[in-house]
Amino acid sequence: LSARDEEILRAVYYYRYVTARDMTYDQFAKTSLNHAREIMARLAGNTDLDTHNYLCRFNLPSTNRKPQENVFVLGAKGRRLLQEMGYPAAWYFRPHKLKFLSYSYVLHNLILTRTMIAAGAWAKDHASFSLVDKRISYELSGKVIPDGWLLFEEQTAEGVYERPVLIEIDRGMEDKHKFRTHVRGRINYIQSGAYRREF
């Protein structure tokens, strides 16, 4: 494997659900989508739902007949390699459960991936900001788990300021009462001191 291949595996391990478009913005020039697709397809053995390769590829569950993007997750060979490199890559994708993974569930995780990657791309395009830390829900624990957390630093004439951002992916799928309860839980989480202890 090349150094680039290993970087892709580490990124897929971190985000869990990715597309070639996500990896293009994370690892390549923006015009390199076809190149990213070729590399990721090779790491997946150029086949779908084979978990024994470095990556496992499957089609995004569809709500209509339109072709969907391919989704990539870590395969068994990729997981073993990362474990040898010292990463606690315990999570793995189970193809037999794919029929139980709703379109909404997979799309939520892909939007989270894209949001986290877009934040890094945004910081690169804004010289006064740096993305200095990030956490994703898979590595967090506790009663309240945000989808993600980003820590930006802003360089100003008066000094450097920290700009933390909690991420919650909402696609308008919850009713008003449930949404308010959800937001109230996040506010209580911050006010209780649990947020400060975690981050």
Describe the fold and architecture:
By secondary structure, this protein is α+β, with helices and mostly antiparallel strands. Helix content is about 45%, strand content about 20%. It has helices at about 5-15, 20-25, 35-45, 75-85, 105-125, 175-190, 195-199; strands at about 55-60, 70-75, 130-135, 150-155, 160-165. The strands form 2 sheets. The chain has a 3-stranded antiparallel β-sheet with strand order 3-4-5, covered by helices on one side. Strands 1-2 form a two-stranded antiparallel ribbon. Strand 4 (about 150-155) and strand 5 form a beta hairpin. Helix 2 crosses helix 3 (about 35-45).
Quick tags:
199 residues, alpha+beta, three-stranded antiparallel sheet, two-stranded antiparallel ribbon, 7 helices, 18% strand
Count up the helices. Answer: 7
- What is the helix fraction of residues, given as a range? 40-55%
For the record, give the distance between the C-alpha atoms at the N and C termini, rounded to a whole number.
Answer: 35 Å
The shape, in one word, is globular
Query: What is the C-alpha radius of gyration, as a whole number of Å?
Result: 18 Å
Task: List the secondary-structure elements in sequence, H or E.
Answer: HHHEEHHEEEHH
The profile of the biggest β sheet is:
3 strands, antiparallel
> Structural class from helices and strands?
alpha+beta
- For the biggest β-sheet, the strand order reads 3-4-5
Which ranges are low-confidence, i.e. pLDDT below 50, for 5 or more consecutive residues?
Answer: none
Total number of beta strands:
5
Strand content: 15-25%
Mean pLDDT, to the nearest integer, reads: 90
